[in-house]
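My current task is to audit a protein record that another person submitted. My question to you is simply how this chain folds and whether the tokens agree. This is what I was given:
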Amino acid sequence: MSSWIWSPTKIGSYPEGRSYYGCHQMVGDVWEWTSSEYVLYPGFMSKFPEYTDKWAVNQKVLRGGCFATPSRQIRNSYRNYFKPHERILFSGFRCAQDVEDEERNRC
């Protein structure tokens, strides 16, 4: 079952889910792009080789899941893949700023 909220939510909507480092909503809003090439794990044997093995080339890793992903699959380690030059609904990227940089910019 996916979320009943069919869109990303405002940062801070789930304060009890904040990480140890203070990051909000690390999974579940949108699939997050990584810079990693998608490769099959060593020794992986697909149940669907005609699908997985054929398509797992020239793809980038997406992590975490999105608001449309079934809740039992949403986790930091969950991987998906897609070609970065093609548009995929429900994907995005995380913007971050170093706290020290932020404090320096105030001066």
